[in-house]
Write a structure and sequence with these properties.
- By secondary structure, this protein is α/β, with parallel strands linked by helices.
- The protein is 39% helix and 11% strand.
- Strands 1, 2, 3, 4, 5, 6, 7, 8, 9 and 10 form a ten-stranded parallel sheet that branches.
- Helix 4 crosses helix 5.
Length: 403
Amino acid sequence: MDLLNTLVDKGLRRALPSREEALAVLATSDDELLDVVAAAGKVRRQWFGRRVKLNYLVNLKSGLCPEDCSYCSQRLGSKAEILKYTWLKPDEASKAAAAGVAGGAKRVCLVASGRGPTDKDVDRVARTIDAIKADNEDVEVCACLGLLSDGQAERLRTAGADAYNHNLNTSEATYGDITTTHTYADRVDTVQKAHAAGLSACSGLIAGMGESDADLVDVVFGLRELDPDSVPVNFLIPFEGTPLAKEWNLTPQRCLRILAMVRFVCPDVEVRIAGGREVHLRSMQPLALHIANSIFLGDYLTSEGQAGKADLDMIADAGFEVEGTDEITLPEHRAEGGCGSVCGSGEAESGGGCGAHAEAPAAPAAATASTASAVQEAPGSEARTDLVAVRRRGAGTDLAPNA
């Protein structure tokens, strides 16, 4: 089809699609789904070959968050039955990280619930980074601690952090419907702080919260403007006890279309299939590897993931290979331009981007709205809640290992 040929051509040249083209990907039919996956796969292989980067979450501090993010089981007022604990000690965090590294993880993501770290918290995380790198010198460390104050990103960089994650999650227009205790602009500011400090910026989205196709396109275009090195795509896990517990809006087919749209808009960045892939992609996870080049290994923050061995088997069976610690994740033009994640290099990142993400002309507002309306009527099969179950991480234990 002409649309996919155009998108492949643009992706191979790092030229960006229009909003109408991005919306059209989400509007494709189930009959066209394999063509969409194949087209996105050509772009993925151009920039990342058949490598799959493995990432591993270490939840440093769980629950008891003062923010009211509607999707989160750790939110203020959450009734979700999850593990709640205060900060892990550096040696505990290092031991947890070692389990992921042993399974093939190249990056360890250190996550802590809360609005943002105090300076004392930054010192605590710095000691944790030091402990992890002392035991696993080649591992990349990404911190995810919430909103950053001035100077904190620089301190994390000095402490040895390679990257910082802070997701935009949804479009600016609908952000206030999801969270009221901070703003979309607050999140943008933190990603910019990470960029300016020389950290590799990681920022993504959550799909399935009741958003429109126009909202999905808006947040991905917003991410493109921020130019992160990696874009995690989360699929909402509707936890009981949260305001979005009844939001079962995703099918495997829709998840694949969303991933493809992200790949076409962000052709040369690390696209990571993040939380919810097991719940919503299910048996179609191997197809998603043809679009994304990165996944989380093992469990998530408060829910169980697929067994690590099953992930490794899936990667091998689909004809892909796990990315080694000696391989550079990003394409040469991004890495050498100063905005690439180079394992162990300590190379600083330019805040100005790499030229591949120049703004494409925006679609007229009327055209975008009408296209979005049409898209909302073009889904494939209905979401099947009877096929899935949310498994809480560590149920019946003090702290379950992630792998």
